[in-house]
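step=encode ok
step=design start
structure_in=
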């Protein structure tokens, strides 16, 4: 018993260890000379001594490391059906056997015949669960034809329900987790948004938000070995809960739960639901066993550090971790001339729900590409009307990524249907027409949302002499300046429609002949390449997340300088020759 107690107490730190060892030698830890209450009191005293020593952990990060902050890769073998004769027969394999078993559970009459049909293809599906994902949160799916299948294309295909699991190599054997996500939906094929002759372009695709997480992923803090003790774990959890709490029904509940002496589980605070890495950073910047006098001294010190660009980021995080008491120096710093200091202060103010953050963040989105992604994100979490007006103002900027970035962040607000009303198309994608004072712009998305967004307009389409998409859709102009859209499919009757010569009319016409999102994206891209779409056209022009701000020099130029993308004016540029993985994460 003595050895066990000493082993646990030793993790408190050297000074506390020697203090308690003296107590133990006096007999207080002996089962004959002391009670459990005496032992508990001595351990509390040792913890108190540790918190008074020079070696004490001052911030949560000094005593903990984060847990659960990395994405988890999920995999599945599944079936795509609805193909126009481009399916193939999967060769005998464990994957084929698994698919056959799955088909039997879905009451398919003849699973082998269904699987070997030229309308079906066996595919591999990948997805990623981000940190802190909650049950039913949407995730993107990445689909490619299995190497064990003779299928040639998944154009026009629909992914049947797929059960995604985490797969790991343990003890030289592949082990699968329980189902962590379920996915299904129509595939946006790569050739729709990428030009080229590579066979991979028709063998791979993406389903934006086609998956749903079936479980929530927890995040938390692992107590460092030197501080693993129930009293310390409880103290840290209490310090976190004084700063972060929310109301669960009728009761107030903190986000931290000290599950063990070496682990604290964290719930996701609503303010940080779209920026969980920042929640973790702020939590780890909270002071341990803080007092009013110590807090005042710390605010004074952090105010001084906030005036230096090299220390402003860490100082702003710690002031945000203090809460409302830390807002005053942040408000002052948000008005200074230095853009770096101004950004760090305004960003922290946004997460403190302070309207003083809005004007500096809007200005920094316009002028500093290095801060654009984080500034837009910070604006989106502010539910004030002025924040929505600021994002709406940014959609008048000439910068493509600024306009679309502002739009996407407006879409995340709870009042999005009033701010950016759109049209839900029958095939599961959305069309938005947004007023903008800047030149016309057409954006299509392959990430998170299946959507077409038109800024300004209505944007005209010059009636083409001939435009043929790979899915059998043909677009031609008529004598009246309208678009005649036809669709030809093997074994099915031809369908035709007539529409106005605008982007909106083209989308409606393609939907009328049964075309899906992949068809719309491909036709728009081809129209731009042929010169029939004169407006600027961009694919996923979102602000970059990993830009660097260079002090005392010009800020990083915008990667999305779309005027320099070549004749097609498409991002990514046609023929860019990029060799990285076809999907982005």
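sequence_out=
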């Amino acid at each position: 018993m003595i050895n066990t107690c000493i082993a646990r107490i030793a993790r408190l730190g050297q000074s506390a260890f020697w203090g308690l060892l003296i107590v133990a030698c006096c007999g207080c830890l002996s089962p004959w000379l002391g009670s459990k209450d005496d032992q508990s009191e001595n351990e509390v005293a040792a913890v108190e001594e540790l918190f008074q020593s020079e070696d004490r952990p001052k911030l949560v990060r000094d005593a903990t490391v984060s847990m659960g902050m990395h994405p988890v890769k999920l995999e599945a073998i599944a079936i795509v059906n609805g193909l126009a004769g481009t399916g193939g027969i999967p060769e005998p394999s464990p994957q084929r056997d698994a698919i056959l078993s799955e088909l039997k559970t879905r009451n398919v009459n003849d699973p082998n015949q269904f699987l070997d049909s030229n309308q079906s293809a066996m595919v591999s599906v990948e997805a990623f669960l981000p940190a802190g994902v909650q049950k039913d949160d949407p995730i993107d799916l990445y689909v490619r034809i299995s190497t064990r299948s003779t299928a040639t294309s998944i154009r026009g295909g629909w992914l049947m329900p797929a059960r995604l699991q985490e797969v790991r190599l343990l003890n030289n054997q592949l082990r699968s987790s329980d189902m962590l996500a379920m996915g299904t939906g129509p595939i946006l094929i790569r050739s729709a948004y990428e030009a080229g002759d590579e066979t991979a372009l028709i063998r791979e695709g993406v389903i934006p938000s086609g998956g749903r997480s079936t479980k929530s992923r927890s995040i938390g803090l692992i107590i460092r070995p030197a501080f693993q003790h129930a009293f310390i774990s409880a103290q840290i959890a209490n310090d976190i809960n004084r700063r972060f709490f929310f109301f669960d029904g009728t009761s107030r509940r903190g986000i931290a739960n000290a599950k063990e002496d070496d682990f604290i589980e964290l719930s996701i605070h609503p303010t940080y639901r779209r920026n969980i890495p920042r929640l973790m950073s702020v939590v780890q910047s909270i002071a341990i066993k803080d007092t009013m006098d110590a807090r005042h001294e710390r605010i004074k010190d952090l105010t001084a550090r906030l005036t230096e660009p090299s220390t402003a980021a860490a100082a702003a995080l710690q002031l945000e971790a203090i809460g409302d008491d830390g807002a005053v120096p942040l408000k002052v710093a948000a008005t200074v001339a230095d853009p770096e200091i101004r950004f760090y202060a305004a960003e922290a103010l946004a997460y403190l729900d302070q309207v003083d953050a809005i004007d500096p963040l809007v200005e920094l989105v316009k002028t500093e590409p290095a801060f654009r992604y984080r500034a837009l994100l910070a604006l989106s979490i502010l539910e004030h009307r002025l924040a929505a007006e600021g994002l709406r103002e940014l959609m008048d900027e000439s910068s493509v990524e600024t306009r679309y970035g502002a739009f996407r962040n407006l879409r995340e607000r709870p009042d999005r249907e009033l701010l950016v009303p759109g049209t839900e198309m029958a095939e599961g994608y959305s069309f938005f027409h947004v007023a903008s004072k800047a030149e016309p712009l057409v954006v299509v998305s392959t990430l998170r949302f299946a959507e077409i967004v038109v800024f300004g307009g209505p944007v005209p389409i010059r009636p083409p002499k001939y435009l043929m998409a790979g899915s059998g859709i043909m677009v031609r102009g008529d004598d009246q300046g309208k678009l005649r859209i036809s669709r030809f499919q093997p074994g099915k009757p031809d369908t035709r429609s007539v529409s106005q010569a605008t982007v909106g009319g083209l989308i409606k016409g393609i939907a009328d002949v049964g075309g899906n999102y992949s068809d719309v994206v491909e036709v728009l891209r081809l129209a731009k390449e042929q010169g029939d779409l004169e407006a600027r056209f961009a694919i996923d022009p979102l602000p970059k997340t990993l830009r660097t701000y260079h002090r005392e020099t010009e800020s990083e130029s915008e990667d999305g300088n779309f005027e320099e993308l070549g004749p097609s004016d498409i991002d990514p540029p046609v023929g860019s020759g990029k060799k990285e993985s076809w999907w982005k994460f």
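step=design ok
step=annotate ok -> The CA atoms of residues 132 and 218 lie 6 Å apart.
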